[in-house]
Amino acid sequence: MKKVFGIESTAHTFSCSLVSSIDGGVHGQILSDVRSIYTPPPGSGIHPREASRHHVEVAPKIVEQSLTQAGMAMDEVDAVSFSAGPGLGPCLRVGATVARSLALYYKKPLVPVNHAIGHIELAIMLTGAKDPIILLVSGGHTLITAFSFGRWRVFGETLDLTIGQLIDQFGREAGFSSPSGPKIEELAERSSNFIPLPYTVKGNDTSFSGILTSAKKLLQNGKDLESLCFSLQEIAFAMLAEVTERALAFTEKREVLLTGGVAANRRLQEMLSEVSKRHGAGFLVVPKEYSGDCGAQIAWTGLLAHLADISVEVEKSFVKQSWRLDRVDVKWRD
Ligand code: AMP
Ligand code: MG
């Protein structure tokens, strides 16, 4: 049985987790997952420097609590993993510094993890998906991917804002604090008044900036917030459903897996479930508790990478702010 300690710090969340393998790595057990989320003041977004200051302040406590929750000491773990990118530079560097210090002091291998792959691997482990087409929707990502020939291949992605940025930036305009997804969802459920907003799909890619500009302008001009939340969700999610459906039809996968923080949204789940049904594919969603950024994503993916002998020397363990998932050779999958 292997045990890996993982650290997540790409954006708003600083989180640590201990995960152990069962069945030689096919299944994992989350022994602990402790998080602290930086919340900016209402009406403003994440300031990287402020978020990184939060991470520095909470790091010692979160490391300690995650070990206590798992009932384990650091010298018992087999490796230390950290999210090396993509993400906000100042935030990434806090997690990387903590991981390097632990790896050096306790003489453990240091395993870099791509954050997008972290979302994907944990979702696969928790749902039991076999070979899915994946819609990854979060604050940092909006893409459709499937595994082929050693890498996660991208079948469509956003050309500008991520869906999480659209939701949070519109929420900011309405005076909410980020992340505002649950609040927007709640307001959307109170309306059925559809206000047309720009629907922009190019090839199999999406663009959300037109929706944001229009929705903000309509809000400033006095349109009611509930109808705007409803319409924003309907349009943006319909775009995501369209591109996912096209990728599904093309790849002929038998499963659709929804992951990332926005996966918690019931309306998005409903639309994708309909798409899956139409193609006779199974529909899976990451459990809500693990949909947003968390240490368990990094610890579990770190464990899979560790079993495949992947590690990095501390001197070369740079963070990569724009590390695409389709650049990663995934040695633990075939
Ligand atoms: P992540 O970057 O994976 O932690 O995901 C965070 C993003 O998920 C933020 O943009 C949130 O606003 C968004 N989010 C969380 N819950 C929901 C929800 N119920 N509906 C829509 N978006 C959500
Ligand atoms: Mg994320």
Account of the protein in words:
The protein has helices spanning 48-70, 89-106, 115-127, 163-173, 181-188, 209-220, 225-251, 266-278, 295-307; strands at 3-8, 13-22, 27-37, 79-85, 110-114, 133-137, 142-148, 151-157, 201-202, 205-206, 255-259, 282-285. Helix 5 (181-188) packs across helix 7 (225-251). The two termini are 22 Å apart. The chain is globular and about 60 Å long. The chain folds into two domains: 3-120 and 293-327, Nucleotidyltransferase, domain 5 (2-Layer Sandwich); 129-290, Nucleotidyltransferase, domain 5, CATH 3.30.420.40. The mean pLDDT is 96. 41% of the residues lie in helices and 21% in strands. A five-stranded mixed beta sheet has the order 3-2-1-4-5, with helices on both faces. The chain has a five-stranded mixed beta sheet with strand order 8-7-6-11-12, sandwiched between helices. A two-stranded antiparallel ribbon has the order 9-10. The protein has 334 residues and is α/β, with parallel strands linked by helices. It binds adenosine monophosphate (AMP) and magnesium ion (MG). Adenosine monophosphate binds next to helix 4 and helix 5. Magnesium ion is lined by residues 115, 119, 138-140, 293.
The CATH class designation of the largest domain is Alpha Beta
* Mean pLDDT across every amino acid position: 96
Number of domains: 2
Low-confidence spans: none
Question: Widest sheet: strand order?
Answer: 3-2-1-4-5
Report the end-to-end length measured between terminal Cα atoms: 22 Å
Number of helices: 9
User: Which CATH architecture of the largest domain is right?
Assistant: 2-Layer Sandwich
Bound molecules: adenosine monophosphate, magnesium ion
- What is the rounded Rg? 20 Å
- Compute the number of strand runs: 12
CATH topology of the largest domain: Nucleotidyltransferase, domain 5
The secondary-structure element order is: EEEHEHEHEEEHHEEHHEHEH
**Strand-residue fraction?**
15-25%
Q: In percent, how helical is the residue content?
A: 40-55%
What is the CATH superfamily label of the largest domain? Answer: ATPase, nucleotide binding domain
